[in-house]
Write a structure and sequence with these properties.
Chain B: Keywords: Hydrolase, Membrane, Mitochondrion, Mitochondrion inner membrane, Protease, Transmembrane, Transmembrane helix. Chain B: It is found in: Mitochondrion inner membrane. The complex is a heterodimer of chains A (191) and B (213). Chain A has 4 helices and 10 strands; from the N terminus they run αααβββββββαβββ. The longest helix of chain A has 24 residues. The relative contact order of chain A is 0.15. Chain A folds into 2 domains: 55 residues, no CATH class; 120 residues, Umud Fragment, subunit A, CATH 2.10.109. Chain B is α+β, with helices and mostly antiparallel strands and 213 residues long. Chain B has a domain of 137 residues: Ribbon (Umud Fragment, subunit A). Chain B contains 6 helices and 11 strands. In chain B, strands 1, 2, 3, 4, 7, 8, 9 and 10 form an 8-stranded antiparallel β-sheet that branches. A 3-stranded antiparallel β-sheet of chain B has the order 6-5-11. In chain B, a hairpin with a 6-residue loop joins strand 3 and strand 4. The longest helix of chain B has 19 residues. Classes of the chains: A alpha+beta (191), B alpha+beta (213). The interface between A and B is medium-sized, with 27 and 25 residues.
Chain lengths: 191, 213
């Protein structure tokens, strides 16, 4: 608001913005030397606020790749991701995002299939391990798999994922707009 | 319209309330800068106190009266992804997600000779993982107990010791017996022991050629 007022004082109306010369910019900076520093710091501060909000509360994130094929299309989808989660309260069937144990610069999205203490079959498809092998998931770890088993690198390859790597949980799909909606838990329990 | 007027009057009364009280005004104007400060703490540098004995004698040695206050550098880890063997780092424990301070012994591809609680005698660190250990092998819960940890768990690197005044300074690679120390003095013995430990650590690790790039 205040910055807008300064700008209008300096350049008169928005039409003169089209014929802005470098000299005018220099003049504007010279006149408002003090407040420019202050307001750029305010802008940085606001950017920090937005970033921290996106890191700790909720953010829109883009998911792509073949590993979650029936749930997420390969071309990419925009989803609402919740960041304020407690990994201990996740349920089987939730979609989580975590830092890949293979590469710390990558974030991946998979489905939780085992909680601490569960016994899981390492690989029912027999791709990474014989299909008879079973493991107990240790404390403070999750077992995660992609929905598209042949094209997914997940716990079958690198084992259980520690809670410390879990960053968020996908809550709803935003784009494509006609498929919008909250992700439903697809797990059915058989007695 | 009525609602708008209500909001406006509420805003005006709040403003009047703040303007009348300098203490409240000062607090609010300081709070505005909170995001910037917390971003610096989260992505730049942060000051923390180290508890526990697992990093003795590098941190919290027995003859120290205070707990060590240290400066952690998050920028090097989160932006530059600069993981080096021998660095002391803070990481989230895979066992209970608490922040622990350990030393990186080996990175991906390296072969480490393990210490007792670990089932195998030798282990090759898988890609994207690191082998972390405390400096005090008897009082630490480290990779010898829970295996190699993913690099994503590592949060920050210890850059500087701030408090016990006699050990103030950056944590680089001193590790050479100090030339100004008198032979046989406590200082000399300490640096000699440090060098010895570093040698023992390095003798247990076979560094992979390809990961040096």
């Amino acid at each position: 608001m205040l910055f807008g007022r300064f700008a209008r004082q300096a350049i008169g109306s928005w039409k003169t913005l089209l014929s802005l010369r470098p000299r005018d910019v220099v003049h504007f900076c010279r006149v408002h030397r003090r407040s420019i520093g202050y307001w750029s710091l305010q802008t940085i501060n606001f950017a920090c606020f937005l970033h921290l909000f996106g890191e700790h509360v909720a953010t829109l994130s883009y998911v792509e790749g073949p590993s979650m094929m029936p749930t997420m299309s390969m071309n990419g989808e925009l989803t609402l991701e919740l960041k304020r989660i407690n990994p201990a309260e996740l349920k089987r069937g939730d979609l989580v995002t975590y830092i890949s144990p293979l590469d710390p610069t990558r974030r991946v999205c998979k489905r939780v299939t085992g909680l601490p203490g569960d016994v899981v079959c390492v690989d029912p498809t027999g791709q990474y391990a014989p299909s008879t092998e079973h493991v107990v998931i240790p404390r403070n770890h999750l077992w995660v798999t992609g929905d598209n088993l042949p094209y997914s690198r997940d716990s079958r390859m690198y084992g259980p994922v520690p809670f410390g790597l879990v960053k968020g949980k996908l809550y709803a799909r935003v784009l494509p707009w006609r498929d919008r909606g909250v992700f439903r838990n697809t797990f059915e329990y058989i007695d | 319209m009525k609602l708008l007027r209500g909001v406006r009057s509420a805003y005006a009364s709040c403003r009047a309330f703040v303007q009348k009280r300098p203490a409240v005004k000062f607090t609010l104007s300081a709070l505005v800068w909170l995001p910037l400060a917390s971003a610096v703490i989260e992505y730049g540098v942060s000051v923390k106190t180290v508890r526990g004995r697992s990093m003795q004698p590098t941190l919290n040695p027995d003859d120290s009266l205070w707990k060590d206050i240290v400066l952690f550098d998050t920028f090097a880890i989160k932006f530059r992804h600069d993981y080096k063997r021998g660095d002391i780092v803070a990481l989230k424990s895979p066992v209970d997600s608490k922040l622990i301070v350990k030393r990186i012994i080996a990175l991906e591809g390296d072969t480490v000779k393990t210490l007792p609680p670990y089932p195998d005698a030798e282990v090759c660190v898988p890609p994207g993982h690191a082998w972390v250990e405390g400096d005090e092998p008897f009082r630490t819960e480290d990779s010898n107990r829970f295996g190699p940890v993913p690099l994503g768990l590592i949060e920050s690197r210890l850059a500087y010791i701030l408090w016990p005044w006699d050990r103030i300074g950056p944590l680089g690679k001193p590790l050479i017996p100090r030339h100004d120390a008198v032979v046989g003095s406590p200082d000399w013995r300490r640096s000699k022991a440090e060098l010895e430990r570093e040698k023992r650590r390095q003798s247990r690790v076979t560094i992979a050629d390809s990961s040096s790039s």
